[in-house]
Structures are given as structure tokens and as C-alpha cells.
Amino acid sequence: MRIIVHKAKCQGHARCSAQAPDVFKLDDEGYILPGDIEVAEGEQRLASRGARSCPERALELDRTPAARG
Amino acid sequence: MAINPVPDHVPSEMVRDFSLFTSPGMAPTPNGDPHAAVACVHAGPPIFYSPCNTRGGRGTWVITRARDQRRVLQDTETFSSHRSIFSSALGENWPMIPLELDPPAHGVFRSLLNPLLSPKRVMVLEPAVRERAITLIDRIAASGTSCDVMKDFAFPFTVSIFLRLLGLPDHRLDTFVGWAKDLLHGDDVKRPAAARTIVAFIDELATKRRKEPVDDFMTFIVQAQVGGRRLTEEEVRGIGVLVFVAGLDTVAAAIGFGLAYLARNLKDQELLRREPDRIMLAAEELLRAYPTVQIIRVATKDIDFEGAPIRKGDYVSCATMIANRDPAEFECPNTVDLAREENRHAAFGYGPHRCLGSHLARREIVIGLEEWLARIPAFRIKKATAPITSGGHVFGLENLILDWS
């Protein structure tokens, strides 16, 4: 699973990293670091919860076969 | 309250008799539920015009859907937050910073302040926050089997954390709570008087810290630089006043509404007491169900929004308590589900002005609930008492007498 990060939409709610701190890394101001995220096998549930709690809808789950690969 | 006539460009069929200030359930009400009272707008259109929806009696457009509020609050070019809401009460015109600045000026100040209240910084503050909660609750537990949560815990707790952040001594706590109450809930005489007192206090504190710097928030502000220069006195004041106003009432109300819910729902209360790991997620759900703030923007240009002819200068209301009960965004929005996972709630707003203090507020709420549940046995609303709730610009709870005898 991959998470597409729409960095410009991030407003620093930090809901994602509260759910999955190892998946979603923040900068010193508390905003998400740029770049899409490849999620490791064991972290998918938490990562998906984190992405789905973003109030700005800045995190998009990509479950296409290529992303799963 | 002066009521402005509905502007000519507003079609009469888009006007509705609804207001966060004057609708049923918005005035101080024993055992009220102002959040449920406003949720009724979801039976109606996604946007309508309310002729009297600010404290001063101005009309606003009301955006009901979470999706549309997100669009308004993310689009700062069309929907400005520059209103001088505080200073205009004094007949002046300066912005609270960063809230009442628009990008790009907003970003400069926001970046300056973000690290002071970032998730990382809040982790450093956590032990002091927890210690404060424990001290207060232990004192309550030792002195009986009943208390007024607002007076004895929620206000002293949140205000003292805030005083510590600003580097101010605890003994002034009652004074600050008094100013905040007058400012947010006082009448037309008390409000401007409190505003003047707060401005004078912030100005004096800034002068003191300029002369004798210490390791605190205000010293940081007076020493900070933006674009290679020190901040002006007006900018320092704008920041100080915002931190003061934003930090005082809202978190206390959130803790009060949360504990009131748990006092009335003993199964949920017992679940959280037995499994405290659930509190973090539960706190998000309580923030969703009982948020406190109405956000207002000003249109910078004419725009047709979901069929509504918004014209330059119109006020646009994005009430968090309305977005958070949107059935298109939340399954069963009027049911409190403490295990709700998909919870993109708007308690701290959307867009670049997302509440700067949200991370600290969250920690205070979670720690407050954790320590309360760990130290106070099964509690209910005390018989023959009734929590008094109110609507308005900031939803509030005047009292919450709990009993665990």
C-alpha cells in the first residue's frame, strides 16, 4: 500500500502521526514531510487509519496493484 | 441587539430563521444541548442566509456541509479572515496574529509560532500538564464526593497551563479567568472594558520582557525577527492578545462538555475507566460531537457558491459544530461513538488557520480525562442541579456539578 501525500493541503493537524507515528513523519513545525509513503506490511491498518483521519483530505490511499507490489 | 436588514442581493428564499445567538437552545439553558439544537440545519439546504448571526447582530451566510466548509476555509484568497474582531470592539483596527492575517503575511508569523506549539514541543510540556491535573484532582477527591468541574477543575487546569506557557505566576489565575469571562460572555459594558484591560496587560508584559528577558513565550515574541526585523509593538500585541483569547475558554469548555457526556453515559464512562488506552480516540469523538467555535470569514470578491450569490464583504459562517454533525461526512453524526475511527472532524477548523494551539489543547483534554477517570469513581450529574449551556460565538458550559457519593 502507498499513501499519496498532497503536501500543499497539509495544515499540521498531525492526526495522521498521532495514529501512526512511524509512518507519518512531521517537520519541526508539525507538518508532514514531502513525498509519497510506501507502507510496510505490518503497518497498513494504522497507516490507513491515520490517512482517513486527515481533516484536510491531504492523504490519499493508493491500493492499486502496482502500489501493493 | 441591532439587526441589519437582509441585503438586496440575498434571495428571500435563501433566508432562514436560524442563528447561533438567538435560535432556541442558544441562550443559557439548564440541561441544554446546543450542539444537537444546531444539527437541525442538516435537514435544510447546504447554504442559507442568517440575518442575525454574530454578537453584533450582523447577518452571515451559513455553510452547513463539512465539504463546503473545507473549501471555504482552505481558500483564503476568496474568504479572508481579516476582521479585527477584537480591536474593533475598542474602535481600533489591528489584527490578531496570525489568525486575522491572510497569506502570505500569515505564513511568516505562523512559521514563527508553529514550533512553540508543535506536537514535539507539546510532548516536552506533557509532564507539567499531567502534574497540574493530578494536583487539582487529588485536592478535589480529598475534599468530598462532589464538585463543580468547571470552577474546581476545568478552568484552573487549562488557565494555569496557559499561564505557565506565557511565563506568568499562578496566583493571578482568578484575575485572568475573570477577564476571559467578561470578554467572552459579558455585556456591552463589560466586554470592551475587559478588552482594554487585556491589551494593557499584554503591552505591559511585552515592555517588561523587552527590558528583562526570561525564558518564556513573550520574551521569544519580543526578540523574534520576521524578514530581518523585530516585530512592531502592534504585532506583538496582536499575537499576545490572540494567545490570551484563544487559550482561555475553549479547552475548559471541551473538558466540561466531555465530562458532562460521560456523567450521563455511565457505560461509556466505565469503558474508558477500565480501558484508558481508548481515551485518545474517544477524546477526538468528544471534540467532534461538542466543538466550541464558530469561524467567520469575509468574502473578498463576488462568488456564486453552491447556488448562493455571495458578494464582496459578506460574512460567511463555518460553524464547527455544524460541520461536525454533517451526515455526508460522518455516519450517524448525532450518535457519540467513542470508538469512531473515521473522524475527520473540524473542531480545530480547516485550512491554513487551523488552531495553532490544537496540539496542546488535545493533550490537555486527553490528560484531563485520563487523570479524572483514574482518580474519581463513577460520577453523575448531581441531583437537583443542571449544567447550564450556551450557544453563541463560543459554545460554553457555565457549571457542571458532579457527584460520586
TrEMBL record, chain A:
A Pfam match is Fer4_15
> Among its keywords, does the record have Metal-binding?
yes
User: Which InterPro entries does the record match to this protein?
Assistant: Fe-S_cluster_ET (IPR051269)
Q: Which domain of life is it from?
A: Bacteria
What's the name of the protein? Answer: Ferredoxin
Protein keywords: Electron transport, Iron, Iron-sulfur, Metal-binding, Transport
Q: What molecular function does GO assign, one term?
A: iron-sulfur cluster binding
Q: Which organism is it from?
A: Mesorhizobium temperatum
TrEMBL record, chain B:
Is Hydrolase given among the entry's keywords? Answer: no
Q: Name one GO molecular function term.
A: heme binding
Matching entries from SUPFAM superfamilies are given as: Cytochrome P450
* Transmembrane regions: 239-263
Keyword annotations for this protein, in alphabetical order, are:
Heme, Iron, Membrane, Metal-binding, Monooxygenase, Oxidoreductase, Transmembrane, Transmembrane helix
Q: Which Gene3D superfamilies match?
A: Cytochrome P450
Record InterPro entries: Cyt_P450, Cyt_P450_B, Cyt_P450_CS, Cyt_P450_sf
Q: Which cofactor does it need?
A: heme
Q: Which family does it belong to?
A: Belongs to the cytochrome P450 family.
Its recorded name reads Cytochrome P450
What is the phylogenetic placement of the source species in the record? Bacteria, Pseudomonadati, Pseudomonadota, Alphaproteobacteria, Hyphomicrobiales
